[in-house]
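2024-03-11 09:14:02 DEBUG pipeline.ingest accepted 1 chain
2024-03-11 09:14:02 DEBUG pipeline.ingest length=428
2024-03-11 09:14:03 DEBUG pipeline.predict start
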Amino acid sequence: MVDIVVLGATGYTGRLIAQYLATHPQRSSFTFGLAARSQSALEKVFRGLNLSKEDVPAFIMDVTKPSDVGAVVRQARVVINTIGPYWRWGTSVVRACVRHGKHYVDLTGEVHWIKDIIFELDYAAVKSGSIVVPCCGLDSVPSDVLAFVANKTLKSFGGPSTTIDLSTSAWKLGGASISGGTFSTILTSLEDVPKQKLLAARQNFSLSPGTHSPRPRMLYTLPYSDRPVYGAWYFMAITNSQVVQRSWGLYELARRANHHDAVAQFSYGPNFKYEEFVVLPSALYAMAYSIIFAAIAALLVFFQPVRWFARRIMPGPGEGPSEKQLQAGSVKVTNITTSSPNSQGEKIVVRSIFRGRGDPGYFLSSIMISECALALALDGATLPQISKGGVLTPMTAFGDILVERLRRSGHIDIESELLVGTEPRKIR
């Protein structure tokens, strides 16, 4: 029995996660194992990371065989699943975790699949005590973290009854790359997933009952900025917004069911709205970007020859950024959150920032999902009160525990400050 098992350890991101866990400062406090389909490829990972099978157990597993999946899941307390597309390969892993009361985290961005596992497995996970947390990487930890810390900062100034009106995140990505596995998942969604499922996943609050959020548009601006900040629709906003909205829904459900301050402090309020965009140099650039992006997306959706050509020029499964690209990348997400107006019409404004050093989608995602798994393995007694089981989100499952773990990683900074006139006051 190990604390954590990494499924898909021979894939690009799986190798990064294995490396991070093997060199983690708390390494002496937990055990982990690596699982993959190919024994020869797994042995190559062990040699590349200088790992010993006496210290790190190896498991051979074919994700298409439920018996294999169940046998490996039973050997761990927490499962990190990197095997995508999750629509195709993820459900059997979640089913096994729920059946055996194990915890689960992954890197999916497939809202249509998350919607299915909530419908099928959320209640069973609550009953078995299995904590299932999709989207534990770049999709959608930064977005979920920023809404969470902004809410805390608002309430620290305005009191526990303060609620959020609008929360806007502006993404600035440096050197971001795409791996073969991620690109394969995108094409699989376009070709294999029923169109009605994809359309349903794009509806507001598709993962949680809710109200409404701003509609996507060609040009965005970030309010209360020192200088104008322009941007265009961010393609991962489909996933990130749904995860943040599910956090809102789970907090609201817990507040209404429990009626005490320990839970009420997490509530974003009944009028909560969330949106995000990718930062671009100017308004004109943002408009052009939106038009070009929409055209490329339409070509990929409607023309099979375009998808065939894209497969020829994009990285294949198992491939990803070079070591130099991994170290050179960065991400900065700036969030402006405003409170609902008080009786005098006044609003509280909070600015929160998530900074990461390293390639966002792979290097930083490997850190985020590893720290999520370690929170489950090592910090179970101090996790938020609502995280006793079910299909949760990063913040509803881990809350402040994850925020502090990310800060201690040395690669991620998270800060939140109250904008009072021209003098911001930081609350860390």
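2024-03-11 09:14:41 DEBUG pipeline.report The mean pLDDT is 90.
2024-03-11 09:14:41 DEBUG pipeline.predict end
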